Amino acid sequence: MADPWQNAMDHAVAVARKAGEVVCDALRGDRAVMTKSSVVDLVTQTDQKVEQLIIQSVKEKFPTHRFIGEESVAAGEPCVLSDSPTWIIDPIDGTTNFVHAFPFVAISIGFAINKQVEFGVVFSCVEDKMFTARRGKGAFCNGEPLQVSRQEAVEQAMVATEFGSDRDADVVDKIFQSLRNILCLPVHGVRGAGSAAINMCLVASGCVEAYYEIGIHVWDVAAASLIVSEAGGVLMDVDGGDVDLMSRRIIAANSKTITERLVKAIVPFSLPRDDATPPKKS
Ligand SMILES: O=P([O-])([O-])O[C@@H]1[C@@H](O)[C@H](O)[C@@H](O)[C@H](O)[C@@H]1O
Ligand SMILES: [Mg+2]
Ligand SMILES: [Mg+2]
Fold it and tell me: Where found (predicted)?
């Protein structure tokens, strides 16, 4: 049976590549920086321009589809995942990297229907790596199949995480407690690309055994969540429960074994859900 969403996925790849050209061009120019939820939660006109480019391009082909876009939500649009076909967009995942010309920035486009991600596209544009996954059909980087690492000994694992943009001392303490516990398992090392989506694609590529973070948003991880699972990986909440893309918490790993060791080491805390935050628009 023909795949009803293949043409939508092909469009996502094409518009991600076009958006990547805009981002890479902007990396060579000036980048006016603004802030959102904190003085270190950065956004630029390029984030906003790229998100509008993607949304307008999709609307022309799929006028009835819905959107969850990072910068649209920041501007007051609701963050609601219904059963309708919904595009979940992070126009630049790694904005702080982008501002500093630190070369790990990605355009992330997830597509969900009936609240299930059907395809994911993450374009790491400086690296020119197009990560894709279609539910049930595998995960790829530039067309090459992806497979998670087969390492199941956490003491020989590489783990990725990020420190986020919350500088509340109590939150930072919890983040560092988890980091300390994980380092002392021990693990071979901890890394962070500065982009949740790229970290998760590194899990899918077998370069790191796991990524975890508390503080991410649905747009950071929707596309890459399918790339990880289609590469043979496992997704879980940091407390060992089922992953919930709106919960702002995630572990993406190569195996249940590694995931369960991380659950024991992570100090869990809760944040307001993405779909619980009331839209700012009156
Ligand atoms: O804001 P953005 O660059 O799209 O996304 C970023 C995430 O990829 C990262 O994991 C998180 O730690 C940052 O705080 C930020 O949210
Ligand atoms: Mg992001
Ligand atoms: Mg972003």
Answer: Cytoplasm
pLDDT, tens digit (0-9, with 9 covering 90-100), for 255-276: 999 999 999 999 999 999 999 9
Global ipTM: 0.99
Which ligand lies nearest the alpha carbon of 95? 1
Task: Give domain limits for the chain.
Answer: 6-145, 154-265
C-alpha 70 – ligand 2 centre gap (Å): 8
> Which overall architecture, per CATH, does domain 6-145 show?
2-Layer Sandwich (3.30)
**Predicted TM-score (pTM) of this structure:** 0.97
Phi first, then psi, for residue 267 (nearest 5°) are -90, 105
CATH top class, domain 154-265: alpha beta
CA 143 to chain centre: 20
Q: Pocket around ligand 1: residues whose beta carbon is below 6 Å from it? A: 70, 90, 92-95, 162, 164-165, 195-196, 213, 215-216, 220
In whole angstroms, give the CA distance from residue 271 to residue 249. Answer: 8
Q: Specify whether 220 is catalytic.
A: yes
